[in-house]
Amino acid sequence: MRQVAILGIGQTKIDEHWDKSIRDLAVQAIRTVLQDAGRESAEGLFAGNMMAGILDEQNNLAPLLADFAGLKGAEAVKVDTACASGSAALRAALMAVASGELDSAIVLGIEKMADRHPHEVTAGLATAADADFEVEMGVSFVGLNALLMRRYMHEYGWKHADFAPFSVNAHANALHNPFARLHQKITVEDFEKSAMIATPINLLDASPIGDGAAALYLVPAETLRGGTRIVIAGSAAATDTLAVHDRSDALFLTAAYKSAQEAYRQAGVSPQEIDVFELHDAFTIMSALSLEACGFAERGQGVRLGLEGDILPGGRIPITTRGGLKARGHPVGATGVYQIVEVVQQLRGACGPSQVPDARIGMAQNIGGSGATIITHILKRE
Amino acid sequence: MRQVAILGIGQTKIDEHWDKSIRDLAVQAIRTVLQDAGRESAEGLFAGNMMAGILDEQNNLAPLLADFAGLKGAEAVKVDTACASGSAALRAALMAVASGELDSAIVLGIEKMADRHPHEVTAGLATAADADFEVEMGVSFVGLNALLMRRYMHEYGWKHADFAPFSVNAHANALHNPFARLHQKITVEDFEKSAMIATPINLLDASPIGDGAAALYLVPAETLRGGTRIVIAGSAAATDTLAVHDRSDALFLTAAYKSAQEAYRQAGVSPQEIDVFELHDAFTIMSALSLEACGFAERGQGVRLGLEGDILPGGRIPITTRGGLKARGHPVGATGVYQIVEVVQQLRGACGPSQVPDARIGMAQNIGGSGATIITHILKRE
């Protein structure tokens, strides 16, 4: 199995792009990644996307985007694991290059959500949950996360304001990311006063949707000699039951634990060696659960890392350094690729005021459903 | 890159399964493949599916099916390239095992279409075409194929009845396949008299939809010693423009040519050595175009292979030996996996009256969109 390196990155700003179609966004991200990689084409396009079939009436997305982006004839496939689609596409591309089947591949994360009525988007997002046993009961995706947050607060005695540092940090970091959707500093007071969505989740607990596309260019690491390179040192996926009620312990992300442990093993590192961690903060509760499952905090103590400043760019385990899902935005199928783009930016030292000093080992974790599919990647600068 | 073998196969009958959900069908196919492979679980599940997000309100399909089929915790991902989703899932699984990332993987092709109103299914199928430049004009998926067939007849001087042997052969072979949707012998006269759908395509030119699931169990070939084994000797994907009007030559399947040439090269065989060919006969015109692009007939002469009996089980290049899309049925995202299951059955000598004598090398070709994504696999018994 060949080691794989990330030669280039590309992204569009996350926004409500009323003037651009899904193919326009894809072309923009792919052109940028080709330019960054110094390449003219690629043998394969692996697109992570969740909702084009539902919101854009365009299911057969990959060959369309390959053609419009000038990758004519390339192998092109769409990979979908709901909000983890981006990192699942990365894994598919990684295995294509690692196996020797392809010598170059573009990973694209793409989602166009903002054109449609919010009711349609909410219904679309609910297809990430169990249609017959969760959605049928009327629970939305935010609702499922609200139940988890409420239970966590009850079990471990935290109050709502204790989650504020996750959102405050994300918004502060997004100020320095031109591609982020929200450029708005917030305080703990703003957090507590924001509008209620699904008790106890309020507006500033939740990540915004958006239109966006991000891209990576993969090549065999052995082809890059001389100078520094960024390699994928660990990559692992695991699943849990799709329905939250089917889990014996809903407050522990088993699939996060499994995929992180396997990624640590592959990369030969421990959690203490991770310099930066782009986690899946779709809701603040997920930040806490993810930090705990990945070995950065004891069970029930994830929020303490926020309260004690450990998650800041200069802290023990910096998270959401470019804004995270909370402030960079969460175009669902694209998010996993944005996370990797941002880890690469950290390892390149390109993050300005939110740069983690001398970041050398970075991790990203992407979640599909309420913890059903969890994919962890570890990148190294070497 | 490790060679990969197919250790087991499984399938459900293709039908209108009003009494079964998409998860029931998946569990049935996965249980069957585990039994056939003599295994209890697998490290990964790669599901090919096109329309669960649209027709079943269940986008996040793979972790759900992994859980319900007893593959708890396994990596699980959905791959979607419209009607080529099944073989795209096979390619993703193949690269996972070939790269050494996984030591076992189940490929599942699954589609549940028959519960919904035909108008919804037709609209869903149209998402395989270019939404902005084809579907927007009001053309359906059958309509696009009808335009291709009409042009082909005009260019090469064939009449409609000349396409009859493709459907007659498919229906004759399906009589011996208990998993086929249609068990009904047809004649050239039936073919000519059947109801018009979209001129010149009539009912017996077109494949029926259906509910169905098929599965494969992949392992590294090196783990199978002694006795015969069936290996994946060639696997390749290529794309063309999604919109038919963007092609300079709409009557030649460029992506079929490219992927077949690459599969021949990998397998070290020529078209003359292929003993059986499961092609993508969604419409009779696609059989002709596929045979031509893969080197079995000159341009414009694909229909001649039907008229001269070359496509029969005892002929020069037997096709649709278990009924093909036409009579076995076409549950879109599942079809690519059914094709591979059937090639394995041929190489195992398990096809009764439609067995190709001493079949040793088999090919399958799966098409997504009107020729946009084309994936070719070559299997060998050794």
Alpha-carbon distance between the two ends of chain A: 19 Å
User: How would you spell out the order of helices and strands of chain A?
Assistant: EHEHHEHEHHHHEEEEHEHHHHEE
Biggest interface reads:
A-B, 63 and 63 residues
Q: Identify the quaternary structure here.
A: homodimer
Mean pLDDT of chain A: 97
Biggest sheet strand order of chain A reads 1-7-4-2-3
Q: Profile the largest sheet of chain A.
A: 5 strands, mixed
Instruction: Please tell me how large the radius of gyration of chain A is.
Output: 19 Å
Which term fits the overall shape of chain A? globular
Low-confidence stretches of chain A: none
Strand content of chain A: 15-25%
Number of helices of chain A: 13
Helix content of chain A: 25-40%
**DSSP strand tally of chain A:** 11
What would you call the structural class of chain A? alpha/beta
Features:
homodimer, 382 residues, five-stranded mixed sheet, four-stranded mixed sheet, globular
Chain-wise SSE layout:
The structure is a homodimer of 382-residue chains.
Chain A: E1 4-11, H1 22-37, E2 44-48, H2 52-55, H3 61-68, E3 75-80, H4 85-98, E4 105-111, H5 118-126, H6 141-156, H7 164-174, H8 188-193, E5 196-198, E6 201-202, E7 212-220, E8 230-239, H9 254-267, E9 276-278, H10 284-293, H11 302-307, H12 324-327, H13 335-348, E10 361-368, E11 373-381
Parallel strand pairs in A: 2-3, 2-4, 9-10
Antiparallel strand pairs in A: 1-7, 4-7, 5-6, 8-11, 10-11
Helix pairs in contact in A: 4-13
Task: Describe the protein in words.
- The structure is a homodimer of 382-residue chains.
- The first copy, chain A, has 382 residues and is of the alpha/beta class.
- Chain A contains 13 helices and eleven strands.
- Chain A has a five-stranded mixed β-sheet, sandwiched between helices.
- In chain A, helix 4 crosses helix 13.
- The two termini of chain A are 19 Å apart.
- The model of chain A has no long low-confidence stretch (mean pLDDT 97).
- At the A-B interface, helix 3, strand 3, helix 4, helix 5 and strand 8 of A face helix 3, strand 3, helix 4, helix 5 and strand 8 of B.
